[in-house]
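Shipment paperwork, digital attachment
Item: protein structure file
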Amino acid sequence: MRLPRLLRTPPPAVAVDITPRHVAAVEVSGSRAGGFLVIRYAVQPLAAGIVVPSLNASNVTRPEELTQALRSVWERFGHRPRRVALVVPDGVAKVSFVRFQQVPARVSDLDELIRFQLKKAAPFRIEESQISYSKGLETAEGQQFVVVQARRDLIGEYETACQASGATAGLVDLATFNVANAVIAGDPTLRDDWLLVHVTPGGAALAIHRGRDVAFFRHRASDGDGGLGDLVHQTAMFYQDRLGGSGFSRVLVAGGARVDGAQTARVTIETRLGRAVEDVDPMKAVGFADRSSLPPDLVDALTASIGLAIAQRTAGTDGDV
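Attachment content:
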């Protein structure tokens, strides 16, 4: 999936997802042609308040406890990886869309142009930011770029906890982007418009996709203005008015197995959109080496790390900027 990542190095073999409620790690083998297999996985619950996603405040409030949770994951995992790909909560970053009719030929010029656009509405100083971008939709109005911006010191809190556990974070990415990666890996023929709703204990993210490209993204914390119903309604209106959408081919929900009031959230989405929704099922993208039957909440907890692990197995094939 052509989505930005906040940090890039050669692909790590293990993906770890840090959320306010747990740390989850997976190792995936295989290829797109031959299929993917989860050969190791582990989940460690987190006490409330250890991780509190925020754009402008400390995210890891008790770093020693997060480090210990990561060490526990490695013990359950069976080995401690030297390098990992890291999934962080959506709430730590701002996702923006910028469009240019003429794209500079030189990467340095494109970098400067994107930074100039971000300064207009940046939630913090550009000089303090970790910024990544990748190509999105190309339309008659120009080439769109999906841009991720986060404070470098806040991303560093997650990286430092990994480092203290003995594993270096070689790549950092956002949770909902990698839930989408798991969806795409399970259905690589996706071509039409589809909507992903990712519900978490700290809020919700909605992403509209056209095939493999993300065309819209919005995250709202649980303490933000309005509820999930309002967010779904606003997204549907944007889809119709700004994207000329004629209807979603699929509406998928992730995170429901781990969130209180999940059934209410599902009914809210179906009511607002007037259509049935389906759960994201990462088992369509991977098999498990132990062939055991996994409970839904465990599968749900592993979804984002599975998506990133698969993305790393196929790194370099999607035309990332």
